[in-house]
């Protein structure tokens, strides 16, 4: 109810601040019998961690995960799985001079207004470090989906600043995504994007981007009509990620300008029991329920709020001050957001699979 | 869990199909003592109902609402409020020839796949008639917010097809929105939009649009960090409305191309305890929590799927057929979507107000 | 959250007051394809309704139920099923003189304290008339359990006042329960109980009783460990029924005096994969999970609070008054409680079946 | 949904097995600003821990708790509080010979049936070691209730085997409860109880008991009518504790034999706005809502299932075997159950306080 849990049947509850003792998650409702060790989780965390390339923050965080419960002799038991990563890079003294200074477009002000108290060390609970817990939990969901249902969640950087890319979504593989440090499978666009991020970084500034999420192999029938539409739950999942300002599925905002006669996806039958659509403007979801086609959506990330430029701001007391941030942050968040988008996708799909199974199978 | 409820503390549960006995909603968790009669609800339903103008479907539905419980001597008692509207226009024979035919981009196929059974009369539960229940429940939330907190929810048509408008969001009033039948307060744009919708209608086609939602007077501090961010819950609320394909808040997708130094919203102090921002790229929400500035967001609606053109499709059995729809539908959904967007906004804000109060006040 | 819903996956939400327009329930999450008409529900309501025999209240309420949604061509569609019974016997003038008078051991005082407002007609929302909605929803659960899983829920009156009965729980049938108006299958005890209730009724007083609930055919494995133990959810279900003051399962309070060596239920194998216990002190649940043995539990009902005796009390304003109730009420609630206990049992078991299926099958 | 969380607004989620890495809990929804250190929690754990006296299990577990998140500079921040105790006494080799043997009246069989896999070391998740997490979370709730609302939760051993006690509930203090090792404030009865437990222990057997819970200072108005009645939620909380077989509030099962004219609690006015009852057969809750009187209830614990006697049983494969337990267990669980009952009481009351505040204040 206080907003730290996600999912109904495959349910995660995260905890921890950027500079407290640890960050972690309880995964509740995982089916029993899944083979699971830390080695299934760590690679996903390594794709998210800071310091992984020249265009991410130079902060070093190893983000080493350990399983504290719910696994016995290498298999899940059906009981809660607690995953924990200790905070190792606790240079909270870096932040001492920020005490009381409200950083523009950070959550300092809103947390103070909400709670009347605020952990000012590195954004506290509002830190993107919380997403570590999501990626760890998502790794379990991804493994289960892959092994039991042959469902694959993928994501890639589609746009950085004003540089777009062209990608064949149907054929995309994770290897292509991982082939460069910006995680854009269009190699030409990727080069330009990397150059842009470097330029922005050297200017002490930041830039936004778009991550495209893909979910392949989802059978028709997932999603609950009315409020818990599959697209609504995917949207909420993505909009809950730090710095996200927009979400669209299928034709999205561009579909607004289309006529129904162009936008409708005609049905045809591959064989008697396999009905497909010739186009996929729906993005794989109609009436809130998966169609069996590829699910694809776009997620807009704003430019990172921490910049090196001097900014006008105030203290909690309302006194005007100037702020020159000297923290170690990413000039562009999208390459590291790719595994987060995948994790949230997997959590939504597995939750809806279990919900569908409960009522309808 | 089956997706027919929305909200945690101010919680609505809707029921009913387009051609069953009735459509309605239980509103649970409403604070006691609110003056309430059907007259507080009916005007909102009249803004949503079909047949209200030349550019909506000619179907006549009176959508008369009645209160069945939870109100005593004109005031809410704190117990569940059940609101019900009978289905009067039950011409289900209109749909008899559709039996088994999967209408492109409707939910016929996905419902069949999910449940193995489908109420084929006028889309059944997937019908937009379900939104009547949301608007009725939202009318209660709107009244409470207005009377107890001076919070106002507004929405207007910002775009229809490729025709955009220019609107001063800070000054907008509901009178301006209601001044024309397309509900776009930019009168020049409104004329063009109406002409476009008429052209599309006469061509037997449909067109999409964008509704902009505004929430005025929200104090700083609402929204739960991490998963139940205020923007994530608003996004889910909007994406759960029929035909919605995208949601963005504040700078949204356009913010992607901005630099942090442009995008950040600088703080200043109006007086000691009133901290505001000079710009509002955040759209009124930072770190998932309201900032105290105007909340604004954009919602993309696809073109209506029912068109008069002949379309290729298949039956449930996979047999190819041609479909010429002859139902009575809207050429463009956005004018009638305006009260739905407002209702969903009010439900989200009131729910978060109660959640915030429980923990933090 | 306001306490009007029960169940997680098979979830009911009730509404209505004793003298408002209607009483009803939304059943959400019902599996699709179940054959269902009002005739499946009405017989259960008839077992609960007032005026059914010489030892219940003479009020006449027909409690006629109608299905408003979620059923198409005689089968459930998987969407919300709304069931409604209109309030026909609205003699609220009977209650006008009670306005402001707090009836001892009724909820008048606590509702006033909670909400600051109170529907004083016939107990309002606190009326046992709300249980009509539970019985209606429970009838659906009972039908599904019987047809799909051969699970049967039964209940009977085990004790009335100080008169106990002896019943062979393993062999009990519903016919035996229904063979007399007190619903006690021990015919000798039943006669004494009926005489006691008549005596109490003629004295203008009331008396309590114990209902024993039985659930037959539950496979091993239902129930969620830790907080949502099957016994804990059954206990909550029963304690949520009006006038219930106690719940015990298996050996219950009597088990307190036993030694572990007597109380433990020894295992034996009927065949390789069918492990059973020689005794059943557990009452069919161990570690919160069903064992496969008969589930049995006892529910204590206090004497009805409405009596004909003159009582000392106060008004809402704290003024001393004398109260002589003249309402038409039951001298003993247990015969009419039998179908309520069965309904709540069925709701708990079906909900746990779906939960178990989602995670573990 | 998998049953490892409790509460709606003040919500705890526990994790951990008796012999895995650790046992712990996330407390979500705690109001911000509460002064909190490990020293507020540890004393409650010390009352629960094994090895605390001659009549508990000789196992030594220090149960040292640490706070991992949600507290900053000694105060709660409103974000999730994760509490963790490492498992130190990991003699899982003690249990190696139990592999495959189903211990009578333990959850070995039911867990195997449910999950198809089972952590057999010391009962795994079904171990009473999980209650450590409840007591830790409950210590936070108790502190908040005491400091903000002057509400006190108490419990004591009322009965052990067939030895009952006489206690003045209105005047009882925690000092009296803690004055002897069985935690029964009736000193004469306590001596007999201790002698009984020693006799049972020496015979290699076990015995049950009754814990009485008291909650003092609860204002009128807490509890949600219908399903989430305060007594129903207290009942569920208690029935979710390991080994509990019964719950009764106020007059409970004894009230069954009373007439309404004896059982009803007459109202009187202390002063205009303070209405009280002359008797308290209700146990402090009427219509599911607190009356303002002392809340009291009784909880029945069965005899511990682990005994030294040789028992007949079977293996998971259905093979007959004899079992002589040699584990180190309690002969009687009630003295250590006292802080658990208090903790669960505090969790229920604080949750309902926040729920009431959200809707009604």
CATH architectural name of chain A:
4-Layer Sandwich
Beta-strand residue percentage of chain A: 15-25%
Question: What is the N-to-C order of secondary-structure elements of chain A (H for helix, E for strand)?
Answer: EEEHEEEEHHEEHHEHEHEEEEEEEH
Structural class of chain A: alpha+beta
| Coarse shape of chain A | globular
Q: Runs of chain A with pLDDT <50, length 5+?
A: none
Number of beta strands of chain A? 18
Largest sheet of chain A: 5 strands, antiparallel
Largest interface, Cβ cutoff 8 Å: A-B, 118 and 117 residues
CATH first level of chain A: which class?
Answer: Alpha Beta
Helical fraction of chain A equals 25-40%
- Number of structural domains of chain A: 1
In the CATH hierarchy, the third-tier topology of chain A is known as Chorismate synthase, AroC fold
Strand order within the widest beta sheet of chain A: 1-2-3-7-4
**What's the overall average pLDDT of chain A, rounded?**
93
State the fourth-level CATH superfamily of chain A: Chorismate synthase AroC
| Oligomerization state | homotetramer
């Amino acid at each position: 109810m206080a907003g730290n849990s996600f999912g109904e049947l495959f349910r995660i509850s995260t905890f921890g601040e950027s500079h407290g003792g640890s960050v972690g998650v309880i995964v509740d409702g995982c089916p029993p019998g899944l083979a699971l060790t830390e080695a299934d989780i760590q690679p996903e965390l390594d794709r998210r961690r800071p310091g992984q390339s020249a265009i991410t923050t130079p902060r070093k965080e190893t983000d080493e995960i350990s399983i504290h419960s719910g696994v016995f002799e290498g298999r899940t038991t059906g009981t809660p799985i607690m995953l924990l990563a200790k905070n190792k890079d606790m240079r909270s003294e870096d932040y001492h001079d920020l005490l009381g200074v409200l950083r523009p477009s950070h959550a300092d002000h809103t947390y103070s207004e909400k709670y009347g108290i605020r952990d000012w060390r590195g954004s506290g609970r509002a830190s993107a470090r919380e997403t570590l817990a999501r990626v760890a939990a998502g790794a379990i969901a991804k493994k289960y989906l892959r092994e039991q249902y042959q469902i694959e969640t993928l994501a890639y950087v589609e746009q950085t600043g004003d540089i777009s890319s062209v990608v064949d979504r149907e054929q995309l593989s994770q290897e292509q995504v991982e082939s460069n440090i910006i995680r854009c499978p269009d190699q030409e666009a990727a080069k330009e994007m990397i150059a842009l991020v470097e330029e922005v970084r050297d200017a002490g500034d930041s830039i936004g981007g778009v991550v495209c999420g893909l979910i392949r192999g989802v059978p028709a029938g997932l999603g609950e009509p009315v409020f818990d539409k599959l697209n609504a739950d995917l949207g909420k999942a993505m909009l809950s990620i730090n710095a996200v300002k927009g979400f669209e599925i299928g034709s999205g905002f561009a579909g607004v300008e289309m006529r129904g006669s162009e936008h409708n996806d005609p049905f045809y039958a591959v064989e008697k029991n396999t009905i497909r659509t010739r186009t996929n403007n729906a993005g794989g979801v109609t009436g809130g329920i998966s169609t069996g086609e590829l699910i694809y959506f776009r997620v807009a990330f704003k430019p990172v709020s921490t910049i090196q430029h001097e900014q006008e701001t105030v203290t909690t007391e309302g006194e005007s001050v100037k702020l020159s941030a000297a923290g170690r942050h990413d000039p562009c968040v999208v390459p590291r957001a790719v595994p987060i988008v995948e994790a949230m996708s997997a959590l939504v799909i597995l939750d809806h699979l279990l919900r569908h199974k409960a009522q309808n199978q």
